[in-house]
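Two proteins, back to back. First:
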Amino acid sequence: MIKKRVLITGANGLLGQELVRQMSHENRFHVLATGCDPSSRLTNLEGFSYTPLDVCSKPQVQSVLKEFCPHYVINCAAFTGVDDSETQRDQCWRVNADAVRHLATSCRHHRSHLVQISTDFVFDGQCGPYREHDRPNPINYYGKSKLAGENEARAAGGEKLTIVRTNIVFGVAQQLDRLDFVGWVLNNLHDQKKIHVFSDQWRTPTYTYDLAIGILRLVHFQKNGVYNLSGREFMSMYEFSVLIAEVFDLDPTFIQSAVQHTKPQAARRPPYTGLVTLKSETEIDFRPLPLKQALTHLRDRLDPSNPWNSTLDA
């Protein structure tokens, strides 16, 4: 059997690590993980290769793709700080838009299939949850940069392109630069610190374990086009945080409900986004875990000695 060569960018991030973890366990893939770090953060995992790559460098992108000649490029590299995007606009655009152009152009040249990871923040949040064909209208710079990345991928003209939209991604990873939302809630509740969580921001939270499975299924079925991959439950971030406390047996009284106009953030957030996954469920049999079960699955994978920043099952 000829192994499919898969290049993963942003492989030291939350989703990137999960993809490397799952793909390295499958004999049908030859995985090349890439990131800005000199080495992989998955120090206790075998079955893949790693090379440093700055996706903002067009020469580096061209060189790595020429040497590896991947069947698939899964672009998990992103500038994900929504508030930081407002003040670091040049860097945000370089990573979320310009780098996608470099990758998509090289993918077209090498006939590689690009899987571009995008977000529900391409929408304005007035009538979510959203389907794949709904018209984007981002209201913050992060959303604008990610929509630009989608458009750069399309404009490159490659015949093989899949755009995956997701939202509120949580999971397990090693040595992350920042906590995901679940980690942030757990860290504060564990230290008995009061947190304010918005009751007027509604999403469909997504477990990286499910998201990675969905991406692998898109690869398996060689799907092109836009696909939503997220959890099914549409809820407020406040409700989500209370559920986290319940599953991890922490005190929910430290969670205070808030609304956006009382605690403004640097970047505007769309109120009601989230994603409808019917297309993915129908075409690739995407079946994400129910959210409470996903959080329980996450809890069982965490290292009790360092629960917010490590994983046992690499």
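And the second protein:
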Amino acid sequence: MEQRIVALDVGGTSIKAGLVRSTDQGISLIEDSLLARPSHAEQEADRILEALTGMIEKVASFAEKVDGVAFGFPGPFDDAKGISYMKGLGKFEAIYGMPLVPAMKERLKGRGNTAWEEIPFSFVNDAWAFALGEARYGAAARYPRVFCLTLGTGCGSAFLEHGKLVQGKDGVPANGMIFDQPFRDSKVDDYISRRYLLQCAKEKGLDLDGKGLFREASNGNGEAEEVFQDYGSVLGQAIRPFVLSFQPDVLLLGGGISQAVSFFEGALQEELPLDHLPPVICSKNLSRSALLGAAGHWLDQFAI
């Protein structure tokens, strides 16, 4: 049976969205429906809700009937209740503790469309949405066990076995996330996120943002290349325990830093166990994968 899901990949800067079509033959994105708009994450609750519901309505206009709405949303977030608990991160603080589904449905209903009242909404961590999309429908689909990292402002992670999320076994943390796991004198996120990369660059006299650092490395700047190599070594050390315990068949990378993988892949792999050295692959379509993964998560719960 065909079902159509409005899928949204919500980030601190922008919201990407599209209509996903699910049939007995598989799922696909309706290309014409793909949109990207500012998320206004740093503004008041009304502006954030308007951004979310506006995207839902716009994407829904590409279908005669919508069966569901699926979100990939950054954490901390209660996926079951649809409540954000982000605080001190400079984004989505105005909706802290707010049950989002009734707030969004009330807004949609206020525009004269009562059909939304019975439509189920689902939420999944944005890194998990990306991982599900790639592990089920993308570059990692042929690998049974997938260890996924999204490397950017923060570090997202997911562990999957045959397209299903793994939590609390095989060395995987109970919540499936490694960002807050102990590492060196702090935690993993403090060493493999963008702020650590740029801190290392600054120590070498390179006062650049991530794009500038990548540009310098691409232009043959030896110090910029060294920054990425040092980053790769630290990344390998941080994830080594999880590679040893989970023994993934592939290491899947996404996020902005992953685009520089050619500069740090060698250093990363040097820190991983020789007897289980997974290949490293990178997604070129993080947002598309996240939309498909969010829709796939919705289908897990509500597919007819």
